[in-house]
Amino acid sequence: MPEHAGTSAASSAASLPMDDVAAIKGLESWIAENGGFTHPSLRISCGARGRGVVAAEPLSSAELCRLPWRLLISEQVAEESLSFGRDLRMSAEEFGSAPGLLLLSAFLLQERAQSSASSRDLRDQFYSPYYHVLPRCLALPASWPEGHWLHAGIKGSHLERQIRAKRHSLGLEFSLLQSFAPSYTWEEFLWARCVVASRAYALRGQRCLVPWADLLNHGASHEVQARYHVLDEVVQSDFVMTLTKDLTKDEEVLQSYGDKPNAMLLLDYGFVLPKSAISASVSMTIPTPQIPDTDPQVILKKKQLWSSSGGRFGRETVLELNRLNFDQHLQLQRAAAICSRSGEPTPGEPSDPVIEMAARDGCKTAAEQMLRRSKPSVEMGEIGERTLQEQDWEIFAQQACFQILDEERAVLQDFLSWLSDLSA
């Protein structure tokens, strides 16, 4: 999985640092010493997608790796290793957080803290060969510094809303973890949480960190050549990853992290695909309609209509608009138009010409307002040009944001075209 927020295309021919080469060799030796297997014709290289696994020679229908279950760091291992593991799980479940991700994060932090406290190197710990391969620095959006120019560049976008929501959620998780382990800092937590979020697999009902296998990068569905499964569903045994398509020499082996739009790939893993098959989304805010009626029964019916259409009373309704739900947004605007007009709503009103015109106008106004607020990528480029000594992660993050902002604007423009076609 990606080592950091990404690399520029210029790094496609770069070789791994010697420290990384030694760490990966140590990891593969550790796997072999503990009864596991990694294919000898695969090598780790640094390409356009960052650090990844490539074929040193042509391969077909091969087993890429096999790891005994005990080499995986499961959330069960984490829970049993933490003195507060059970309580943290219970609190996280009540809190609505993902307990597995939080448990694994706390476990990584504990392993690091124990190593420092005892003045021991990580190599003295069982999983140390894996720890040495983990990235030391991640630049996922949740860890962008406060006040960084990247935040100004995405202001008003759906991406900004998603990053704010992610940071808020992580902040609540951090507060929960601190109630059990107050010594950990926000920066330490962010590192561990981002490592886990970008690398954990869902296996047998729990999240697991899988050494070596998580070095494979993500590809679009037509690019994926690797599949994984756990042998023997009754007794915990081996994690196995197999090749599903033939590989040519120097071709990268790719797995799938799931079907996600580019914004989610950037948030969770720190990269984007050149062209995602999953539609981008845009947050559309629809204000609660003002009901002019005084009859309690009419008011109740209109509130029920608004709620059944996806609206929320008492606060603004936020709908994630994508190319698959244009009609849902129009339906909500129809309900708003009906609720705003005096009189009892009737089943035939959504097809009323006046209602239909008001609904389409509401959709058009909302989309045009979003387009005005959404910064074109050229404006973000100007912000970046004013920043001196950009780091690699900043350059990549800027390029990723360019792409996502353009995808958001394309959705809004397609929505306006769809509305125009309805009126034709």
Automatic annotation (TrEMBL):
Residues 40-258 form the SET domain. It comes from the Eukaryota. InterPro entries: SET_dom, SET_dom_sf, SETD3_SETD6_MTase. GO terms for molecular function: protein-lysine N-methyltransferase activity. This is SET domain-containing protein. It comes from Cladocopium goreaui.
